[in-house]
Amino acid sequence: MTRKFVIKFPAEQTGDSLTYNLIKKFDIRINILKADIDAGRSGTLLIELNAEEEKIQAAVDYISSQGMDISPVETKIKLEAEKCISCGACTSSCLSGALSISAPDWNLRFEPEKCIVCKLCLKACPLQLFKIEFSE
Ligand code: SF4
Ligand code: SF4
Which of 1, 35, 62, 81 shows the smallest number of beta carbons within 10 Å? Predict the structure, then answer.
């Protein structure tokens, strides 16, 4: 499984090699999506952890025990619906059925509750109307 987290570092922790420790201790694949860290100052990391659920939970517990603040991040797909021309290109990419076009109006319908955030629509839309949103 893959989960995203925001980690906030107190100033005294910013020099630690967190990603190295997570890989060595918990055998987790890590993807740093955003980093705002300066040695000696507090900072923020947006990371993606990929491993079995128990390993991710152990890593989260470890990060908390090191005096860092870690919060899960929700990922959502956002559509600029007002610019959509209902060409239908995205619907064939959307295996979950969150995107559809049907009679009588043949306008694109987006049902976010069905979205599994596979991100395939980001490449499919010729107008690039899909974006990823992160929220804590
Ligand atoms: S991210 Fe995937 S599931 Fe969600 S709307 Fe796009 S194609 Fe459909
Ligand atoms: S591919 Fe883009 S323009 Fe076409 S229907 Fe989907 S969101 Fe609208």
Answer: 1
| For the CA of 88, the nearest ligand | 2
Containing domain of residue 104, as a range?
76-135
**Residues 46-102: tens digit of each pLDDT:** 888 999 999 999 999 999 998 888 988 888 999 999 999 999 999 999 989 999 999
User: What is the model's pLDDT at position 80?
Assistant: 97
**6 and 62 co-located in one domain:** yes
Please list, in sequence order, all residues whose beta carbon lies within 8 angstroms of the beta carbon of residue 100, skipping any fewer than 6 positions away.
91, 94, 108, 109, 111
- Within 6 A (CB) of ligand 2 lie 84-90, 108, 124-125, 127, 129
pLDDT per residue as tens digits for the range 16-48: 677 888 888 999 999 888 788 776 677 888 888
Sorted by sequence, the CB contacts under 8 Å of residue 104 that are 6+ apart come out as: none
Please indicate, yes or no, whether residues 87 and 62 belong to a single structural domain of this protein. Answer: no
